Backbone:
């Protein structure tokens, strides 16, 4: 039943996508507005079909319908809520279904904004989104079909399947369940959908850009209309990346949160390019410059999401995330090729229409700082891209095996991040067009002073490590620059009204919400950089053998191993060690680092136990457990909460900006 | 605060940092961070909680205590662990471009920005250099350049995708059709298996590894893997192969003839008429039970198997003749 339902959903959505391409192109070519019924129907088909397909998959998982091959091979009866539902996107085929659903949502919202007036640009954009939808729903109908019915059940799982939902199905009694790593933590259920909302959202600016190029309308209109979607996508990407890092920290038991894993890189690259676009689009909106550059960024961001999907799902690169493999690799690669060749040919053919007058007067100006920021962000993305693809390229051409890891990325990315912080502190202080050095240096004096004092405090109280001190100085500089800018503007407005300065702060924030939301995001990034520098340079690590009753002193804590424990849950066995943590003789907490065994798994997934305080986390990993005792790894992660707080603050900036735009009904407010 | 004060503060800070420690004082962790752990995808051996990474870290600490240099220790790790790789590629040889490309990008970008402002400053009014109102050759060159680049990347990546991966990083890739067990060392296979215990498709590799140990006569190691295969609800053919060889090993290794025969029979019940199982049964019957007649009968059945490997055929024929002659087994 679920198979048939899902199959029909995919078929209807696919038909709707094809129809949307047709009606979109028709309306984009016609000067007058034809009846919108055809387009309305095709949108309804896409949205309805995608909802039915996703619902059928989740329904099959909730109802333990093992006659679906996807359910039989990725689900188990014992998998508890919410992991049974999260299994819907834990493997390749299901994740493409979620992708389709999110894409349908973005198409719907694009159409809502469009239907009021004759609108060739919007119709063309919908046609492009329709094309992308055709691709993703075709995947679901062919190489990544999650609604295949099982024809050859094993005792657990399924050996062979048929793509036709009416084929005689025979269900196994149970399945092996999702990958153990995926059912170990609740964040796993949340962070992929967030990332998908981000990835898929970048389709909208891409669609508007292609539509504008194809129709020969490369003004600021496409930019105005795609900025909102870009901001939505960027905010979700930010949340998704933050939660993904948090998940890695809480689950992967190595005390870190970011390993420059190819799939992490695949989410970072579109984020960097989208961030660059959010800034450079302001330059175009305000000053009319960087028009071709904006096209390149938007096309690049979309291509990078497809590249990311290819890297994740084709198994080309080894990664903790390559859970699945299938024939989808070459198909995605073909699509990527099509996107790149198609978009850039179109861009080359229409570039004579893109008026890109360099009306920029001076590097020391707001637009100049945006240029620097764009340079740093794109070079950053380029570094990540090079580092990720280099091993593949070397191996493909010379057969040699090289590995590009953390040392390379850190050496490249840290100076770039510091440069970005510097630009973040100075940029907002600069007026558009041209700034005078005297004036700027005057405004910067206080933030610089505060930052240097913070640096001195760090040197005296905490650490003299270069990375830490520089990160603290630059991070504080960004925060102080923002505070001083806010106070300065408020004071000016208060002086006019003859009011106290503080009463004007609220009014100042409300007067330009998008700008201040952007500054909030800058503060978030500053917190992230400081948190990273502290956590990765000032953490302690040691390993120790403990027999029951033994204690060890570590980072001011007394850590005592009490006893081993073992218990069984429906989907897993949990084996771990009860550990007491004391400080100055007082019991602080009891921790239970453990290993979880899912199904027939005999190696177990080590799950760390974390005790969080504002000073830093105590992070215990159980490396070995036998009757004689345990081998325990002890880490401290000082300041890691700054990282989570910073990530969420950065995303909150995006959300506030969106909310402000909604209230003001002004699609672009230039900050 | 005056600029002089700020400058003094900055200088003091710089001095404090420059005189402070440079990086992690733990040499072992610093070395470990530069080596990719062979079994855990992408993590360094300093980070990974896996057993092989910990063994490698123990080696690093031992070598440091013995007074080896960083480079010596890294060279030893890279040569003695298959799949271990330097995470920190040198700025030379094949990885030179890795380091140069970002610098080149940065320089190009700076030059482009500079040009934009520079021309503006010299001409004093909007300059049309980077923008033209008609398609110019340079635009087309840029467009085609991008196309060629995209094509090259795609082709290179497709080539990569088609290759069977020779390392252990991607289990499914290795266990797929391109998998050639001969190209993989025993240690690598052990590591892959250890990293993928929950994966049901690991059985094929387990069996291949166990068979290799079996042929090398390393029964102890083979034993555990065959048992693990049997514990994991294997396919009939896999179970049969495991039972048969377990049977031979308990006979050949421990001299337990009856148990050996029972196990081989279990294998034969799953895959009736399997030539190798029959041959082993014949050997056990002949040598263990000292029953050449029954053994000859079994060898005879082996020879009726179609498509028998010629080498096996000769061996079985020789055994058959001596068994028929009533000789005790060689």
Residues:
């Amino acid at each position: 039943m679920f198979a048939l339902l899902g199959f029909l959903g995919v078929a209807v959505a696919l038909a709707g996508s094809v129809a949307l391409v047709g009606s979109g192109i028709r309306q984009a070519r016609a000067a007058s507005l034809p009846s919108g019924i055809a387009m309305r129907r095709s949108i309804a088909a896409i949205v309805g079909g995608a909802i039915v397909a996703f619902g059928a998959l989740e329904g099959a998982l909730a109802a333990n319908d093992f006659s679906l091959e996807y359910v039989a091979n990725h689900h188990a009866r014992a998998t508890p809520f919410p992991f049974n539902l999260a299994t819907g996107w834990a493997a390749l085929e299901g994740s493409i279904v979620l992708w389709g659903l999110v894409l349908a949502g973005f198409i719907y919202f694009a159409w809502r904004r469009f239907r009021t007036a004759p609108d060739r640009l919007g119709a063309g954009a919908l046609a492009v989104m329709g094309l992308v939808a055709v691709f993703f729903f075709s995947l679901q109908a062919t190489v990544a079909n999650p609604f295949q019915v099982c024809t050859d059940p094993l005792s657990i799982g399924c050996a062979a399947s048929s793509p036709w939902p009416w084929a005689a199905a025979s269900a196994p009694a149970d399945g092996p369940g999702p990958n153990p790593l995926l059912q170990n933590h609740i964040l796993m259920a949340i962070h992929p959908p967030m990332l998908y909302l981000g990835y898929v959202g970048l389709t909208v600016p891409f669609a508007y850009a292609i539509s504008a190029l194809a129709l020969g309308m490369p003004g600021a209109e496409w930019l105005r209309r795609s900025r909102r979607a870009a901001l939505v996508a960027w905010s979700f990407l930010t949340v998704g990346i933050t939660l993904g890092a948090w998940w890695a920290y809480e689950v992967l038991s190595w005390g870190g949160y970011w390993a420059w894993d190819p799939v992490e890189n695949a989410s970072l690259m579109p984020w960097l390019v989208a961030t660059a676009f959010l800034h450079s689009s302001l330059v175009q909106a305000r000053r009319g410059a960087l028009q071709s550059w904006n096209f390149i960024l938007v096309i690049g961001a979309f291509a990078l999401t497809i590249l990311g999907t290819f890297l994740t799902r084709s198994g080309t690169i080894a990664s903790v995330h390559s859970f699945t493999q299938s024939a989808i690799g070459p198909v995605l690669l073909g699509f990527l090729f099509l996107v790149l060749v198609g978009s850039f040919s179109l861009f080359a053919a229409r570039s004579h229409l893109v008026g890109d007058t360099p009306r920029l007067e001076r590097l020391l100006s707001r637009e100049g700082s945006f240029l620097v920021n764009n340079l740093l962000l794109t070079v950053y993305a380029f570094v990540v891209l090079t580092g990720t693809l280099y091993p593949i390229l070397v191996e493909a051409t010379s057969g040699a095996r090289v590995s590009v890891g953390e040392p390379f990325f850190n050496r490249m990315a840290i100076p770039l991040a510091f440069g970005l912080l510097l630009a973040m502190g100075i940029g907002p202080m600069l007026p558009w067009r041209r700034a005078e050095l005297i004036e700027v240096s005057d405004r910067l004096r206080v933030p610089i002073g505060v930052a240097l004092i913070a640096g001195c405090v760090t040197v005296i109280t905490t650490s003299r490590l270069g990375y830490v001190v520089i990160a603290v100085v630059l991070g504080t500089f960004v925060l102080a620059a923002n505070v001083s800018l806010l106070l300065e503007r408020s004071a000016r407005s208060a002086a006019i009204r003859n009011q106290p300065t503080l009463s004007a702060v609220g009014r100042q924030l409300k007067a330009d919400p998008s700008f201040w939301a952007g500054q909030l995001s800058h503060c978030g990034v500053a917190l992230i950089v400081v948190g990273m520098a502290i956590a990765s340079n000032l953490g302690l690590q040691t390993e120790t053998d403990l027999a029951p009753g033994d204690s060890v002193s570590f980072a001011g804590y007394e850590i005592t191993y009490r006893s081993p424990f073992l218990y069984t849950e429906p989907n897993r066995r949990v084996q771990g060690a009860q550990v007491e943590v004391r400080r100055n003789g007082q019991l602080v907490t009891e921790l239970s680092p453990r290993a979880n065994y899912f199904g027939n798994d005999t190696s177990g997934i080590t799950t760390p136990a974390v005790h969080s305080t504002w000073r830093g986390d105590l992070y215990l990993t159980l490396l070995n457990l036998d009757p004689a005792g345990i081998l325990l790894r002890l880490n401290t992660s000082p300041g890691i909460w700054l990282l989570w707080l910073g990530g969420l603050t950065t995303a909150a900036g995006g959300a506030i900006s969106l909310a402000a735009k909604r209230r003001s009904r002004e699609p672009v407010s230039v900050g | 605060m005056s600029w002089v004060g700020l400058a003094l503060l900055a200088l003091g800070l710089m001095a404090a940092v420059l005189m402070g420690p440079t990086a992690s004082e733990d040499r072992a962790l610093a070395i470990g961070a530069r080596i990719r752990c062979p079994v855990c995808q992408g993590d360094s051996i300093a980070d990974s909680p896996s057993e092989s990474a910990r063994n490698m870290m123990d080696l690093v600490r031992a070598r440091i205590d013995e007074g080896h240099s960083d480079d010596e220790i890294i060279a030893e790790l890279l040569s003695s662990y298959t799949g271990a790789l330097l995470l920190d590629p040198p700025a030379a040889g094949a990885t030179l471009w890795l380091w140069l490309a970002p610098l080149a990008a940065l320089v190009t970008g700076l030059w482009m920005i500079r040009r934009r402002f520079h021309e503006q400053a010299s001409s004093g009014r909007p300059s049309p250099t980077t923008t033209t109102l008609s398609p110019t050759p340079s635009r087309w060159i840029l467009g085609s350049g991008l196309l060629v680049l995209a094509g090259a990347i795609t082709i290179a990546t497709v080539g990569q995708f088609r290759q069977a991966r020779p390392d252990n990083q991607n289990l499914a890739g290795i266990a797929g059709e391109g998998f050639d067990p001969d190209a993989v060392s025993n240690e690598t296979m052990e590591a892959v298996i250890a990293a993928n215990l929950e994966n049901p498709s690991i059985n094929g590799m387990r069996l291949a590894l166990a068979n290799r140990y079996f042929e090398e006569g390393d029964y102890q190691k083979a034993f555990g893997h065959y048992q693990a295969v049997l514990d994991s609800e294997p396919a009939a053919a896999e179970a049969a192969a495991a039972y048969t060889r377990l049977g031979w090993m308990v006979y050949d290794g421990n001299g337990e003839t009856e148990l050996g025969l029972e196990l081989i029979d279990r294998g034969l019940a799953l895959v009736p008429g399997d030539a190798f199982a029959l041959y082993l049964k014949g050997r056990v019957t002949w040598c263990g039970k000292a029953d050449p007649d029954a053994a000859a009968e079994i060898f005879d059945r082996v020879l009726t198997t179609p498509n028998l490997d010629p080498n096996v055929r000769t061996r079985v024929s020789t055994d058959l003749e001596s068994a028929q002659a009533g000789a005790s087994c060689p």
